[in-house]
Amino acid sequence: MKSENTYRTANAFDLPVFVSLDKELFPYSPWSASQYKEEFSSPTRHFVVAEDEAKNIIGYAGVFAPGGAEADVLTVGVIPSHRGKGIARHLMALITDWAKQQGSTAMMLEVKVDNLEAIGLYESLGYSKLNTRKDYFGSGLDALVMRLELP
Ligand SMILES: CC(C)(COP(=O)(O)OP(=O)(O)OC[C@H]1O[C@@H](n2cnc3c(N)ncnc32)[C@H](O)[C@@H]1OP(=O)(O)O)[C@@H](O)C(=O)NCCC(=O)NCCS
Asked: Measured between alpha carbons, how far is 50 from 73 in angstroms, rounded to an integer?
């Protein structure tokens, strides 16, 4: 039987899952519960989740969109067992649509220079490489800055 994933806006009850998945997916820069709490309460931030049929969170994404300016992709991650099925692409579409509704003119993000899966994802969505930021994720962890103009 084909598995059906669903997507929805995140809420405060999801916070512990975000914190725990961050440790697994972003061991070099996980956010704490208090960071997520602050982010979730901000009207300029929007977080979405993907769930499997059993309503387990299998992926998430977040964006900062301050209005008529550039939006920043804050995070996107999918658990290893569910990768390669278009889930990140769908999550990115949801946060991009939300940013557009806020009047954002472009999407920006920073990604670790050796994160080829994520760079592949962003390039497939039309993002272009702008420049690199040395030590952005910590000592020796450089970031590639990428940007997508919004229509
Ligand atoms: C990056 C990540 C979010 C991709 O999630 P995913 O659900 O597997 O991605 P999708 O299935 O939606 O793939 C969409 C596109 O991304 C690209 N892509 C995905 N995995 C890739 C890989 N391993 N290598 C190269 N490109 C890849 C492809 O272009 C793909 O399109 P295609 O399937 O039509 O070829 C996932 O690998 C992940 O969670 N990584 C760890 C967390 C992370 O690094 N997040 C990014 C932080 S900046």
From this structure: 17
140 within domain boundaries? no
pTM over 0.90: yes
For atom 13 of ligand 1, the residue with the nearest CA is 86
Residue 148 backbone phi and psi in degrees, to 5? -130, 125
CATH value at residue 87: 3.40.630.30
Confirm whether 98 is domain-assigned. Answer: yes
Residue 134 domain-assigned (yes or no): no
Q: Quick one: DSSP state of residue 37?
A: H
How many domains does the chain divide into? 1
Atom of ligand 1 nearest to the CA of 84: 11
- Decide: 140 and 108 in contact? Cβ < 8 Å: no
For residue 52, give its domain range.
Answer: 6-109
Give the residue whose CA is nearest to atom 8 of ligand 1: 83
Per-residue pLDDT tens over the stretch 68-82: 899 999 999 999 999
Q: Is the pLDDT of residue 3 over 90?
A: no
Distance CA 115, CA 102 (A): 29
